[in-house]
Amino acid sequence: MACAHVTKRANAVIAHPPGEETQFDWVELPDAPPGWGFPTKRAYVLVGSLAHSGVWRAVISPSMDLPHLLAALTTLLGLLGGVSRVWRFDRMSTVVKADSSDLTPMFAAFAKHHGVTVAACRPRSGNRKGVVEKNNHTAAQRWWRNLADDMTAEAAQTSLTAFATRQDDRRREDTHGSTTAAVMFTAERLRPLPPTVFPVTVSEERTATRQALIDWRGNRYTVPPELAAAKVIVEQRLGVKVINISTPSGVVVARHKVAEPGLGVTIRDTGHVTALERIAMASAPPGRPHRRKERIPPGQAALRAAALLIHPATPTSTVTSLAAYEQAAKNRNTLT
Questions:
Q1: What is the pTM of this model?
Q2: Rounded distance, CA 301 to CA 82, Å?
Q3: What is the pLDDT of residue 6?
Q4: Is the CB of residue 207 less than 8 Å from the CB of residue 229?
Q5: Long-range CB contacts (within 8 A, 24+) of 174-180
Q6: Per-position DSSP letters for 269-295, written without gaps between them
Q7: Residue 232 carries which DSSP code?
Q8: Cα atoms in the Cβ-side hemisphere of radius 13 Å centred on 293
Q9: How confident is the model at residue 138, as a pLDDT?
Q10: Torsions phi, psi of 53, nearest 5?
Q11: pLDDT at 136
Q12: What's the rounded Cα separation, in Å, for the pair 43 and 33?
């Protein structure tokens, strides 16, 4: 087999000085809960592991494209608490240009913004980032398999962070004997995060409800009533507490200040609410609207229709006697 040289060759343990390297990798997970609103049935988790201590954190994402990768990395670095000197990736197309060793322009700018060096593994050399590979397996087999189906994406992120934090107490081996990942983490010399967030805009497609609402990060926001049940594009720039909602052609139709993710609140624009009520009342049938708990007895037409259903009329039929025709036929045979 082509991969036999990878699985059967001798392997050596690579020494990782404290604060030297952070390893990153995507984990693709099937059967995402339908309530998450992801564009496919899959969820993606970006795992980041400090190579020296083995401490890891992870971020759930609906996509692996470049804006979502940078957004997940920004959140992940905050969870890890700092920046190492080197970031190690496999040869994912969002990081390394195809058929070359050059970084993609936006990712190179992101790495420069954080002052790090990016190391890309050679093809079929996953053992170069064995720390994150092991944590990928832990996240998929021990956390994802037991995730409740009715959990929101925001609650699942909180659950994943708590699970990874508990893993800090697992035993590790270093040059001084057996210890824990949490103890080894104290030796990590991570640099602080930049004071500003790298400017990248994340965009996702949503379908508005019949009440002209869209879901975004565990909360709901209004759109103009003309877009009820229509597809819209939601955009948010990292570090900015505002979302723009636009039509597929790019026309911005709404702008909201975002609430904290996962609160389950509805942010309404007064103009949207007034316009929706006006359209709903205009489409209602004419006449006085019914009051609550109003008694409305059936009318004469309804009573007649009910009587026909309960006691249908007996069908009438016309019977034609063929005796005269039979007698005429006999007489004709007699004359012949």
A1: 0.77
A2: 77
A3: 53
A4: yes
A5: none
A6: -HHHHHHHHHHHHHTSPSSPPPPTT--
A7: E
A8: 0
A9: 93
A10: -90, -25
A11: 94
A12: 9
